[in-house]
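Dear colleagues,

I hope this message finds you well. In preparation for our joint manuscript, I am sending the SARP family transcriptional regulator (Rhizocola hellebori) sequence together with its predicted structure, so that both groups work from identical material. I would be grateful if you could confirm receipt.
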Amino acid sequence: MDIGHVEFRLLGEVAVWAAGQPLDVGTPRQQAVLAALLVDARRPVAVETLIDRVWADGTPTEARNVLYSHLSRIRRLLRQVAGGAVAHIERRHAGYVLDVDPDLVDLHRFRRLVEQGRDPRGDDAARSAALHQALALWRGRPLAALTGQWAAQVRASCDQQRLDAAMHWARAELNLGHPATVLGVLPDLVAEHPLVEPLEGLLMRALHAAGRGAEALDRYSGLRQRLADQLGTDPSEEMRTLHQALLRGELPAVARPEPVTVAPALATPAQLPQDVSCFAGRDRELHRLDALLAEPGTTTMIVIDGTAGIGKTALAVRWAHRVAGRFPDGQLYLNLRGFDPTGSPVTAAEALRALLDGFEVPADRIPAGLEAQAGLYRSLLATRKVLVLLDNARDAEQVRPLLPGSPGCLAAVTSRNQLASLVAAGAHPVTLELLTTTEARELLARRLGGSRVTAEPQAVDAIITACTRLPLALSIVAARAAIHPRFGLAVLADELREATGRLDELASADPAIDARAVFSWSYRQLSPAAARVFRLLGLHSGPDVATPAAASLAGIPVAKVRPLLAELARAHLVAEHVPGRFACHDLLRAYAAEQTLAIDTDPERSAAIGRGLDHYVHSGYHADRLLNPHPDDVASPTQPPPGITLEHLAGRAQALAWFTAEQPVMLAAIRQSTGLDAQVWQLARTLRRFLSYQGRWHDSIDALSAALEAARRLGDPLQQAYAHRFLGGDYIALGCYEKARPHLDQARDLYSSAGDTVGEAHVHRYFSWMLDRQGLHREAIGYARRALDLFRAAGHRAGQARALNAIGWFHALLGDYEEALHHCRLALELQERFGDRFGQAETWDSLGYANHHLGRHAEAVGCYRTARDLYHEFDDRYNEADTSASLGDAHFAAGDTESACAAWQHALGILDQLGHPAAEEVRHRLKAGG
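The corresponding structure tokens are as follows:
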């Protein structure tokens, strides 16, 4: 039989075709065995993996025997194809291998053709041809008759690859001038994926290129309605820009390629913590992990479990560094704080945002809903090889939304719990037991030197026994021994034995609890002042603490707290993981909290917590002033109470760095500080501007929601109005207008009832911004005018200027450019009079836009240059890039191509750095203009 006439099909029903005829592939269960081997053609698949893939509804007792029967029948089936010369099954040490040319399997041929079609070295015609061949291989739903989690994962991955290939093909066809071909395919695909905006955008471009512009505009209206109904959001900025270009007739007939996803602009994360320098033991576990990874395509999740302090993180990090080269697309790390003494594990939303941040996904591309965020995360990983290390998980529910769906990725999870449901779903468990005596001795030798350990074997045995062979306890004892190299180990063993005897009443079968004896022994060696600082660290909210914050917590100067923190670090009770920032194991934090409850009085603990919060409130206020020296929305807090050490920050760069380091701590404090409503509200208010500048809208919503609840308990209507107003603003930034409107309504009503005219005016300005984002510019003018009237009534000049500029901008968008210039000049006059330089940047940009559209290109160039320089002064990178792109347009319209390209190149450099989708449009302008 001609080998070329043989085909194994997975992209539809599982099938084998030979000489143009289908062969009998047996029952769905047998098809599942065949598919499980074909997906990993020429790679070994372990028996356990085959069983997991095949039996989705529970593994029967005789699963292995049934599997062997299916394999025997498949062997007979393969012998019908050229006597077994085309494909055959081999039994190897690592599992069963279906030895077949991958190009005879439609799934593998599809992937090869897609890779060929995305090769940037080929031209559009070659890419289109390869992608067309790839898409033609689809005959229906992949693995159509198969059920279960594995089949669903393969199906989801295939669907994503098909969608990606179809969009690349459509772009190539449009570039070749074939819109009719695209229109013959895309409508059905859009019906399958009605919320994929880039796909709808391609269909709109094809309709426009085919002379059916009205239908393209109708498609946008339909998309906007679907997004509003199903996701509660509006089309993305790219889609709104495309819509506006269609309305203005500015869209070229043939679109240049745009990225299908954010993938080309993604960073390659390398987030693994530093490897443990004195790692010892665990050879058996490391070999097991290596063996699991050696089974290609079979291992996508590993769970490392064991008691607290037993070294789960150390093992996971050591192994992750060891295999990082197998994951060239990056390594993500996230501490889920599942057993944090504060009782505040990382939520799924927080975790997903952190993982997306690892790829440097721009904030405006992260959707608002949790499911949509999880979908984006899985999509980013779908075609990548990434290692995801999820440390310190509380339970399976915390982990499940964070798991990759791609067989090329690996999730390694550590937890004190066994996470049985994940294991049942296919995760490979690795349980850590206590170190053996030999391993414990090796750990001490690595830290203290082999000769010192060999010299006192009985003392070493006593230390190992007292530490119950728990790595964390052994490390603490080793740290004390290292501090005093002249002390005999026997002396330390005696001290430790005495401490253990005192805590007999705390004895437990759990070595992590028995480790209290070691903690107690090390704690008692501290000076009284260092012991007090250690106890108070148990009251701190964040995952780590900076030196000035620790000084505030203790109510002592920085000069006095530094040597105390150094003493704690030498005792291995804290670690200076970043210069000037200290963290400790959560067992030690829990022990510190126990000690402060036992020793310090309620007033002492309350005062320490208050000082810690006040440190962040007052330091944050000064950092916020550096970000915006002329705010009108934040009143200065009262003078800091005695004992508070403020951060000494000089300039915007230091303020941004401080906020970046402290925002996880401040967000944790906002969540955890029950009964301290005034400080919670102040913390959220202080953090708001930084989060807004950084585009961290989701974190801002979390903080402001807590602030709103605190303001309600305080009974302060103006604080409630403030929280509602900025919650509305955050939802506008995310495009969630249905969620924004109720907050703005409540803010307006509260400000009006309180007689706060300025606050009410700001809310009307926010309404105008929301309408502008929705393309309702005429309606937006009405709200901006109302804001202007209110600002004038209150004598608020900064607000008047912002409202005037908004009115001018909306007139410009409506084509009334002279009226736009009039209002913007009035705004600029006010802003120059009282020094609102950021407001001037916005107004100069509006003036540039109006002049450009009036054909006054020289005036537009001058306006845009001024705006760009002012944005640069404020380090507002996006607006600097946006204005630079407009500056390039003005130069180009004036006939100065060289200057235009220079401005566009400047904009492109920033946008590429930000990973912003607008970069592609600027890149197109450069190609067209150059």
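For the figure legend, we might mention the following. Residues 253-265, 501-509 have pLDDT under 50 and may be disordered. Residues 149-175 form the longest helix (27 residues).

With kind regards,
E.M.
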